[in-house]
Amino acid sequence: MTSIMFPVPSSTTSRFAVAADHIPHDLAGAARSRTVAFSPHLAGRLGTPQLTLQRETLADLRWDPARITAVHPGQRRAQWAFHQAAEFAVVTSTAPVTDQPRGAQVARAAAHALADATGGVVADLVTGHILSPPTTERTSFVLADQWLGDALPPFRANGRCTAADPEHDPEGVNGCSCVRLRTRGLRRFGLPELQITDVACPHDLVALNVLRTTARHLLTDHWQWLATGPADQTRTITATRQLTESDFNDFWGSTREPCTHPGAFEAHLTPITPRLWSVAPPPTFDGTTNDWLWGDTLPTSLHDVLSSPADPPFPQAA
């Protein structure tokens, strides 16, 4: 059975930025002035590498605000405000990989507290995306809470793709290869990013959900491994992964949707670089990636679900 060895970092970094008309010099005081989830953790970590707050102006920046984008049309105004801002607060957390996801959650909670105090807009500098307010960090970690940078590209390549629709023409199953999807955010949890390529436009949603399912499966498995306290900085896993619809439900943090596909399905991982893996059908699958995505091998929900509310209530962390 093929295996993959990959480096496991001892620490990872998350960075968030708050853009506003005016950013106060006392960022710690502004963050403490708001009651947010993880407030005790925020207070205890401030001033350490696990939580640093930096006020920056356009002249100070080593990153480009224009590269921060909105995922949803409703965020366009927030994107414009972020691009036009003259002052920023940058929240950085460099924490042991064994401290994840708590380290990233506390940093994002601090960013939202600063946004609340300044009327600003929050962006995740790891994913490069505007974050949708309001956000309440919760005790249970939910990968679907804007941690993965998962977004669909423009359908049919903004009208440039004229491939046949497989609903009406079987040749359309492999009619194009417009779609390439990549996660942005797994690295903050000590895992390589994932990508899937050469996908036909009609299969973009199921391809995205395959990435989401694989990411959640790998994250669960990785945290279980880290909990054993391994001393080495490398890890070996099998390249062909057994995924289930439960992995997909876990991505959403929701148990509302019943399992319609109780069995497992396989996805194969291939390293492109030490920090990027491709996701594809298993070697035993007879067909293309598009055949795999369009066929009945995968759970029905992966073809249908773009977003899903997690089960309430969402208690704040103590």
List its traits.
318 residues; alpha+beta; single chain; globular; Cell Division Protein Zipa, Chain: A; 5-stranded antiparallel β-sheet; 2 domains; 5-stranded mixed β-sheet; disordered C terminus
Terminal Cα separation, in Å?
44 Å
Pattern of helices and strands: EEHHEHEHEEHEEHEEHEEHH
Radius of gyration: 20 Å
Mean pLDDT: 90
For the biggest sheet, the summary is: 5 strands, antiparallel
Shape: globular
Total E-strand runs: 12
Helix content: 25-40%
Strand portion, in percent? Answer: 15-25%
Question: What's the arrangement of strands in the largest beta sheet?
Answer: 3-4-2-5-6
Number of helices: 9
Report the structural category.
alpha+beta
Low-confidence stretches: 312-318
Count of domains: 2
